[in-house]
Amino acid sequence: MSHSMQDRAAALLHHRAAGLKKGDPISLPIVPAATFHLPEVAGAAHIYGRNGMATWEAVEDQLALLEDAACVSFPSGMAAISAALFATLKAGSRLIIPADGYYVTRVLSAGFLVPFGVEVVEIATRDYADFDFSGASVVYLETPSNPGLDVMDIAEVSARAHAAGALVIADNTTMTPLLQRPLDLGADLVVAADTKAPAGHSDVLFGHVAGRDAALIGRVRDWRRLSGAVPGPFEAWQVHRGIETLELRLERMCRSAGVIAERLAAHPKVRHLRYPGLASDPSYAISKRQMAGFGFLIGFELDSEVAAEKFLSDCGYIVQSTSFGGTHSSGERRARWGDKVAPGFIRLSVGIEPLEPLWAAMQAALTDF
Ligand SMILES: *Cc1c(COP(=O)(O)O)cnc(C)c1O
Question: CB under 6 Å to ligand 1: residues?
Fold first, then answer.
């Protein structure tokens, strides 16, 4: 991790301290308030719980430190993505989205944006490199893509999107702002599911939009207030607590993922392994340039649906669940959701278990069939 990111990670742990008065709790209080004392509106720090409240603002302060941008928090990643899309599109707009990215974004676009008159164009992550963005209003990207882990060059795609007059929205969920910084590479807005690694304990949904353009982020904030997609104070507190250990967890997760990817790739039963940090991966060169770490997600194929299901159920240290970024390693066969991947394709999220016991469990599960 770069020095500036280490500085951010350190500052994050002390971000509350500057504002503390003698006797204040060091930990963040949960403020469950819908209404506030309001003898008059002018000068009130808080007005009504849909407009803003202290516990989410504390998370937004943490995220703002990491993103180096204004951040608006949401009750889930999809709420954040919806806000970014509804804040930037109108009838007649053309939206470019990845055909191989997070599938709910595509379902939302087809089910709700198309009926409102938005033209939605789906293209594969690898085709962003030479796609003509003429006429696009928003180029939405996700890299590495979930679940295929294809990588695109954010700076290059953003420059061409801007030249065509489009805004760029980047879903940075798989990387987090500690590992990849789309705003520094030209994206106008970042969206992310903090449900994953930032919250990190598989017990809360949360999301955020980050941006450096005041008007754009103002529209996102308006969307939250008017649509009512506001996080709860307890959920915000959980995320605040999770983010305090994000840098520490990511360090272990990424280091283990690098070793496991290498060992899995060399295993005779494993095929088509994708991990951006392997020198043999087609995305290695771009990944090395634009990411501060290679992440904790690995994609690979076993022979068949049966082999993949057997591996997942036999490995005692892989929780079978959808989602990723938790303290425990987890995995699933993505074809069960209709992703366009081979029946034996597994997306593995490496957790914070010590490496060798985790690898031993995987190796044993691989010899079972
Ligand atoms: C999980 C995920 C989302 C959605 O987040 P939720 O908190 O589940 O709504 C969006 N994008 C990506 C890449 C994801 O992995």
Answer: 76-78, 81, 102, 142, 146, 171, 173-174, 193, 195-196, 205, 207
Instruction: Please identify, by atom number, the ligand 1 atom nearest to the C-alpha of residue 146.
Output: 13
For 143-198, what is each residue's pLDDT tens digit?
999 889 999 999 999 999 999 999 999 999 999 999 999 999 999 999 999 999 99
Residue 321 phi/psi, 5° resolution?
Answer: -160, 160
Q: Ligand 1 centroid to 192 CA: how many Å?
A: 7
Report the C-alpha gap between 39 and 362 in whole angstroms.
62
**Helices (H), ranges, 177-324:** 214-227, 233-244, 246-265, 284-290, 305-314
| CA of residue 102 to ligand 1 center, whole Å | 7
Residue ranges, the chain, pLDDT below 50: none
Q: Tell me, what CATH number does 293's domain have?
A: 3.90.1150.10
| Domain end residue (candidates: 194, 228, 243) | 243
Residues 209 and 277 in one domain: no
Rounded to whole angstroms, how far apart are CA atoms 74 and 296? Answer: 24
Task: Note down the domain range covering 126.
Answer: 3-243
* Centre of ligand 1 from the C-alpha of residue 302, in Å: 25
Nearest CA to ligand 1 atom 11: 102
Rounded (to 5) percent helix, strand, coil in the chain? 40, 15, 45
Which protein residue has the closest C-alpha to ligand 1 atom 1? 193
CATH of the domain at 80: 3.40.640.10
> What's 93's DSSP letter?
-
